[in-house]
Each structure stands twice: as C-alpha cells, then as structure tokens.
Amino acid sequence: MLKKKVIQSIDKRRNLIIAGNKEQTIEFALQNFIETLQNSIQKKNRFSVALSGGSTPKVMFEKLCSTYKDTIDWSKIWLYWGDERPVPPTDPDSNYHMAMEAGFSKVPIPKSQIFRMEAEKTSLKKQPPMKKFLKKI
Q: What is the value of pTM for the model shown?
C-alpha cells in the first residue's frame, strides 16, 4: 500500500493528495487508475476512458501495459482520446501514436473498442468558433 498524505478534502468525492516524489506520485496515480478500472468492470462490465497525451500519461501507459498487464481484463477496456493533434496516427506528435507505442498496441484490447480521434481529416482553420459549435449540439 502506498503512503499518501491527504492535504485537504475538497468535497465528498475529491481529496487533494500529496503522494510523494515523482515516482511515488506516478505509482499512486496508477494504483488509483487500476482501482477505478476494476470497480467499473465489476459494476458495469466495462471501463471506458479518454486518454490524453504528454510525458506523464506516457509513463503511466508504459507501466500499465507492462508491469500491470496481467492484472487487467483488457477485453473490457474501451479507449477514447480527449484531445489530438491534426496529424496522421503514425506521426510521432500524435497522442494516439504515443499511447500505442507506450504499450496499448501490445495488450489484447479488441480493435473495435479503440476509438481514436481522426484529427488529421480536419483543418483547425475550418473549425467553427466554439460558441457557434456549442449552439449546434
């Protein structure tokens, strides 16, 4: 069990936590992620998550898909992306590419449960202003 220090209770659902140094914080985040994943699978028979890019998620994805690979029922995982750059999925700048290279391509998630953003098909210049877009939906 990881040692953590609760600094402040924000509300009934959230706490501000100091888990330790960088490695301890990543390990705490991974343990919390896995616990959330397993609870979702137990209650809903699936876990849906929107991934993001960046160096911290990359480290977590690498450990999740290697160190914790055998603790997860990958057939019940549904992957989405919360953001993406307007580049092809093979581009090193792609968040999808980073996640796949970090290990998700090596775990048995059914391809039909991986939903990447096809951001390369759109031009940021052609996108409507956010206010206008939100009125449509």
A: 0.78
